[in-house]
Amino acid sequence: MFPFLAFGHFNAFVQLSNKLFYHGVSITFLSAASNIPRIKSTLNLNPAITVIPLHLPNGITSTAELPPHLAGKLILAIDLTQSHVKSLLLELKPHYVFLDFAQNWLPKLASELEIKSVRFVSFSAISDSCINVPSRLAGVEGRNITFDDLKKPPPGYPKKSNISLKAFEAMDLMFLFKRFGEKNLTVFRSCKEIEEPYLDYIEKQFGKLKFLNDDQIKEVASGLELTGLPFVLVLNFPSNLSAKAELERALPKEFLERVKNRGLQQLMLKHSSVGCHLGHGGFNSVVEALTSDCELVLLPFKADQFFNAKLIAKDLEAGIEGNRSEDGNFKKEDILKAVKTIMVEDDKEPGKHIKENHMKWKEFLSNKGIQNKFITDLVAQLKSIA
């Protein structure tokens, strides 16, 4: 297992590892040394699962430790582990190596060692169906993918889908088209019950981190304030900056004073007091929200988040995507409208319908028998081609 060096990717690979372990699969996990304690704390403690530290340059370990303008260097740092990874593969001789989006060199290396490679997609299938299909790859038909190409679905896309991207969404995806390489198998953290059109489409066909700018933070905060509801606002600032100073600078004037009684600790600690999750639409967060009673308001900012938001809001109709302009800007009124729809006006449409769909998918995703069958089927497929 070799995930990208970001906590959301760690978690997806850890969850898969734990489930494969219960089906008799031996696991070796690769990551930067300082990530090992966190990974070990969530992996099953068993001799069949080992964790090996990789030697990354300059102490680089994860996206959490880098400012936004250096996030791209993390992929370059991963590229520099090739010789170390090769020596480990020669020693371990695994049947498969599971990789993430960033290691486009690994499938070829594994093939030379007669090891099969599996790209584990920890985000949604709808994202991959728009990004990583032959018609999207650089150099296809003698030309590279263009900005205008990305604003519309690829050829042959499911007719029932109304997916289209705004300018700011398409621009964010341009960097992805040089990262995907060849592989023997692709595994999705999804299922046909939720994403059948996109999984079927993919089957037939074969970066930079973002932080809210100050104006966007003010609009989110003001929009939540306008709802009149209790809320918890969690903001992530670059690790090299003072979070307290950034918070005071970025939030609207006197905002903390005006809302200081809205987020009482006793309410936060009771699950029933949390009714809505407003987030960026990362797939881990989306799945966690769907399996809880928290309604979903999505405000995506990069890559697969755009597609996750459309999957939840348009295809599954189990949440709301905040309104955005063509350049990605939004206003506090957009936040207010989205939250009110499912928190205040949930007794009428569309809030009522959204809430009913959310409960339907919560029941499906919480069914342990269904989840176990997914892993059983995966193990059977891996054995059949090993």
From TrEMBL:
GO MF annotations, alphabetized: UDP-glucosyltransferase activity
InterPro entries, A to Z: UDP-glycosyltransf_plant, UDP_glucos_trans
Protein name: Uncharacterized protein
Pfam family, one: UDPGT
Keyword Transferase: yes
Key words of the record: Glycosyltransferase, Transferase
Top-level taxonomy: Eukaryota, Viridiplantae, Streptophyta, Embryophyta, Tracheophyta
Organism for this UniProt entry: Glycine max (Soybean)
This protein's record includes keyword Transmembrane: no
Superkingdom of the source species: Eukaryota
Sequence similarity: Belongs to the UDP-glycosyltransferase family.
SUPFAM superfamilies found in the cross-reference section: UDP-Glycosyltransferase/glycogen phosphorylase
